[in-house]
Design goal:
By secondary structure, the protein is of the alpha+beta class. It is about 55% helix and about 15% strand. The protein contains ten helices and eight strands. The protein has helices spanning about 5-25, 45-50, 60-85, 105-130, 155-170, 200-215, 220-230, 240-255, 260-275, 280-300, and strands at about 35-40, 85-95, 95-100, 130-135, 135, 140-150, 175-180, 190-195. Strand 7 (about 175-180) and strand 8 form a beta hairpin. The longest helix is centred in the N-terminal third of the chain and has 25 residues, at about 60-85. The protein is globular, with a radius of gyration of 22 Å. The two termini are about 40 Å apart. About 30% of the residues are buried.
Length: about 300
């Protein structure tokens, strides 16, 4: 490998020291964890080939429109992430995106990227060229992978994990998010979840993180895992969901800091909705809740 010139190395060290000094003087705190986000369009080969068109006589114009819509979206996504201190785009071309995302804004960014794709790519395309499979309407969607990691974790490992989670999101049925946490201790958490209509699951996840930050201790997550892990069947599903939901409500009441009934009911509802979205798979729910717990602790 080529050795870095000593003068360049000294220059980098000097700038590094200046940066740390400026951050300290301005009382700016840097998080030790960040997120890598990757996503690309679902069914791209078939969509570009016109496989979902009922009338292929206008195929060239159809493909030109897709190219234009995706190009405009990639330009917007780059500017959106870079110009609002949300992170830094590494690559954005057509339906493909790779970027560093500030952990504090992760779910806001995911929500905005997904909504913009739905409006400016899917809906704009379908206004002129409705997509159908077996005479049933289908949407042009994307699946995403996220890896949250410590800044000392090798970047190659983080990128590989983000891509792996994107693949898992597609394997889970597309139009989904795969998210993994690589802790500096070596512990890992991962799960996949569908966006659902208007990315409702992203809103639910964000509300759980906010509840942990402001109104609840996170002891209920540990307690519910300890109580129900051994009560799952071979498919990691809870045998009696009513008992689970009753105990969830009890534990939330105990963990509530201000004992606000409306906030307890809202958090209970959000967890129940996510559990339903995960097809009542307890293991996936616990992984997701532990990811929420981790993000809350690292962004305080």
């Amino acid at each position: 490998e080529k050795e870095i010139p000593k003068n360049k190395l000294n220059e980098a060290k000097s700038k590094h020291s200046q940066l740390h000094k400026a951050l300290k003087e301005n009382e700016i705190k840097l998080y030790k964890y960040y997120a890598i986000l990757v996503f690309d369009g679902d069914r791209m080969g078939k969509i570009l080939s016109g496989a979902y068109l009922t009338d292929k006589t206008d195929l060239q114009k159809y493909q030109s429109l897709i190219s234009e819509l995706l190009s405009n979206y990639a330009k917007w996504a780059t500017e959106y992430v870079n110009n609002h201190s949300f992170g830094r785009t590494i690559y954005a071309g057509g339906d493909d995106f790779v970027g560093f995302i500030n952990l504090e804004y992760l779910f806001d960014v995911l929500n905005e990227l997904r909504e913009k794709f739905e409006k400016d790519v899917n809906q704009a395309l379908q206004q002129k060229y409705p997509l159908k499979e077996n005479n049933m309407p289908i949407d042009f969607t994307f699946s995403a992978g996220v890896c949250i990691a410590h800044y000392k974790t090798p970047l190659g490992v983080v990128l590989k994990t983000a891509k792996k989670m994107e693949d898992k999101a597609k394997e889970a049925g597309r139009n989904a998010l795969g998210i993994a946490v690589l802790k500096h201790s070596g512990e890992q958490h991962e799960t996949t979840i569908h966006w659902e209509n208007n990315a409702e699951n992203l809103v639910r996840i964000k509300e759980i993180i906010q509840a942990l930050e402001k109104d609840f201790s996170d002891t209920w997550i540990k307690n519910i895992e300890q109580e129900f892990t051994l009560l799952c069947d071979n498919n990691q599903s809870i045998k009696d969901k009513e008992i689970f939901l009753y105990e969830l409500q009890r534990l939330l009441k105990r963990s509530s800091i201000y004992h606000d009934k409306s906030k307890i009911e809202l958090l209970y509802k959000r967890v129940d909705e996510l559990f339903c979205s995960l097809s009542y798979n307890f293991q996936n729910l616990m992984q997701l809740l532990q990811i929420c717990q981790f993000i809350n602790r690292k962004t305080r």
